[in-house]
Amino acid sequence: MSALEERVPGLPSLSPEDMAVLKTLGDIVAHVGRSLAAPAAAAATAAPQALAKPVKTLDMDLVTRTMRSVVSRLTGYPEDLVALDMDIEADLGIDSIKRVEIMSEFETLVPDLPAFDPDVMVTLKTLQQILDYVDSLQKGTAQAAPASAPTVSAEQGTDDLEGPVDTSVVNRQIVRLEKRPLVSQRVVAVPAKRKVYVTDDKNGLSAAIAGELKARKIPVAIIQLDDNPQDAAGLVIVPELKKKGALASLAGFKKKESDLWDRNHEEFLKKAFDLAHRTGKSLMESADQGGAFFATISRLDGTFGFGGGKLQAPVLGGLSGLAKTADLEWEKVSCKAIDVDLSAKVNTQLARRVVDELLSRGAVEVGLTDQDRVVLHLEKAPVEQGSLDLSPRDVVIVSGGAKGVTAAAAIALARNASPTIILMGRSDEPGPEPAWLKPLKDEGAIKKGILENLFKGQKVTPAQVEKELKTILGNREITRTLALLKKAGSNAAYFPADVRDLASVSRVIEEVKAAFGPIKGLIHGAGVLEDRFIVDQTLDQFNKVYNTKVNGLENLLKAIPEDEMRYLVLFSSVSARVGNTGQVAYAMANEVLNKVGRAYAEQNKSCRVVSINWGPWD
Questions:
Q1: How many Å apart are CA 122 and CA 35, to the nearest integer?
Q2: Rounded to whole angstroms, how far apart are CA atoms 177 and 306?
Q3: What is the DSSP letter of 393?
Q4: What's the pTM value of the predicted model, to 2 decimals?
Q5: Distance (Å, rounded) from C-alpha 41 to C-alpha 47?
Q6: Is the separation of the CB atoms in 82 and 126 below 8 Å?
Q7: Half-sphere exposure of 138 (CA within 13 A, CB side)
Q8: I need a labelling partner for 608 at 20 to 30 A (CA). Which of 16, 124, 248, 473 fits?
């Protein structure tokens, strides 16, 4: 910020209080824009006759050449590869951070540029669209911004992991239950000519909720997940519970697996997201008109699984990740995740308690047992030092273990117990680098080498170059992590496998057992990101994130004999605990991991199970 203020001396100052709530570069830009606009609006009110400063006419050919030059210099691509109609993210491989860097340099080199509207800028997908927007600003024909888009997160790579780890800076917290009666007086209104929709659970709870809403003179309809609600003021998603998993009747399918993995529940979870995706805009419109609410209702134990009881439908616990993320994205909509004890009798009293929650603003996560209303809170809990029952001959599988926090954890495990560590990832096993690549370290130099050696004489797009670059950098991370594991004292190897494919996972597990022995531990860290707002994310994008996390764990647990497992460590995310803007799929998938971990621990008493909800990894 100091450097920015030096380069742009007219910026209004930002107080520490301001900076504490600004989470992204886009937030900072928007805040500065509002600060600059406020005095300008006041001046216009005080002196209506004052003439606006004319916008200097720009040479758009020069502006275009400058844009190409900046993009070329900051991405490492030759200018002739930078086509103006290429998608900035998909074709040019420019993420949100690089985009800000490019625009900052562009504005420095073209000082007479008119002021940009940040909400418009995030909607522009190509360099040509940006240039057209610049031209429209100077001509006075620019359009107002549509709804803003989220900042897209990116998976982070491995930092220097060779030095000692300072555990004193790790803030460890656990979830605690707190009994708290409902006392909120902030009632959610339902605007006229709008309706509340409740999904049909076919077990009576939905009908009871709808009946209670009707008794309070609130228009309500029971719908199916595939319906398209119109003029929604409220949406309540209630799961249909099945007594048996869809695969439970198949030969060789274990009852424990049936309890954990129910295809009907997974399908419901995905359809629930899709329904929220389709209804979100209507709910936000209703909130602007006077009020709206959204709720998911899970049927665990009335405590979201924290009461210590048996979880009958752990996959459906992922519903709370949807509600918690909606609460952050739909600012004016009252959002709640409600967990009703599966053993609770469905009657008018229970329906009244649920509707009281729906129409009251307050805690986002609320559990209802027969007797109590509970909320969740985080409590600091320093780790208690223990010991690991692992020897160098014991095998630990680490999915997604070549980079980031998963690699760091694997290296720490190697230093502590020196077990045999097997990394499993999507990438092919890295081989020796060609002579032209070995001396290259800088990304720009590598891109140039890719063009000269892999695509010489060919027509190529930046996205193709970026794909090759990511492969090279990924291979280097795998090689480096393996070297650090061996240096720390572990026998280590890498096996390529797609965790979403049971056959692929089973093949690798059998190869590992044959070569190294029984598998005593699993660390599941595999994951991908496809960050979008709920109303923007497609089902395909959702599935990519969800399937890697959840189906990946399902396949690993099916392939590894459970009677040999001593440790199961799940790398979940803080987005599952509190939600996160733009990460609905990640929040729901990781919340499933949390609940499945609890259920697995209940079924396998001899296995130590822990689900770690990591915050941002630095």
A1: 20
A2: 7
A3: T
A4: 0.74
A5: 10
A6: no
A7: 15
A8: 248
Q: Where are the beta strands (DSSP E) in 194-333?
A: 195-199, 220-223, 232-237, 293-298
Would you call 149 exposed, middle or buried from its count of C-beta atoms within 10 A (0-12, 13-18, 19+)? middle
**CA 358/CA 350 separation, integer angstroms:** 13
Residue range 122-178, pLDDT digits in tens: 778 889 989 888 888 877 765 554 444 343 333 444 445 555 555 556 788 999 999
Amino acid at 199: T
DSSP state of 49: T
φ, ψ of residue 166 in degrees (nearest 5)? -90, 95
User: Which neighbouring-strand residues pair with 610?
Assistant: 569
Structure tokens given for 59: 């040479």
Instruction: Report the distance separating Cα 108 and Cα 346, nearest Å.
Output: 65
| Cα(275)–Cα(222) distance, integer angstroms | 14
Q: Which helix (H) or strand (E) holds 101?
A: helix 96-109
Query: What is the sign, positive or negative, of the torsion defined by CA atoms of 18, 22, 25, 30?
Result: negative
**What whole-number distance in Å separates Cα of residue 372 and Cα of residue 80?**
67
Residue 439 main-chain phi, psi, to 5 deg:
-80, -10
- Cα–Cα dist 254/558, whole Å: 9
Which of 35, 39, 3, 1 shows the shortest CA–CA distance to 20? 1
> In Å, how far from its chain's centre is CA 343?
32
| DSSP codes of every residue in 255-294 | HHHHHH--HHHHHHHHHHHHHHHHHHHHHHHHHHHT--EE
Q: Give tens-digit pLDDT for 351-407.
A: 999 999 999 998 999 999 988 999 999 998 888 888 899 999 999 999 987 777 889
